Amino acid sequence: MLKGCFDALPYEGNGMTRIHVQWTMTVFTLVLAFLPGQVLAQESRLAGQAIHCAAIFSWLGKTYSAESERGARSGKAVEIFTDVHYKEISGKTGDSGREISLRRRSEEAQALQGPWLAMDASLMEHAVICGAWAEGFLAQGAAYQYVPVYPKVVPSAVRNQYQTWVSEAMGH
Question: What is the pLDDT of residues 30-41, one digit of tens each?
């Protein structure tokens, strides 16, 4: 099957032999053949933004769980963003979409742990943008009817509110 396709590759000088290259390509091909389609498919931009915001709000939710207003808003935002992720990937993943969304949120929250503890300024800005996006969902009432546009500009009142929340949560 692959015979002859490696003849044009230069092997001298780099320590690789034809056998090394053939073996590597064969293993790579087998790995790709057995990976599930959902692992190979990339998330859409919307799904990635939603799960990132869900993870940020899960950190805020941990901080404000004892406070009724901030804790409830953070928890609701986590639910909404996880649901947006699920709905975005559900056509591509089948029945396991909910579990995938929960796993992805957990992985994303874990990945944010270092920047969160380091009080990273760019993470703070992401949290403010996620906060503005969450406001668009939360303003719709108990159940959202549409997905608001991901914000590029954040009103100053919303910016101040979420900068304060995130700053306090990060321990500034």
Answer: 444 444 444 435
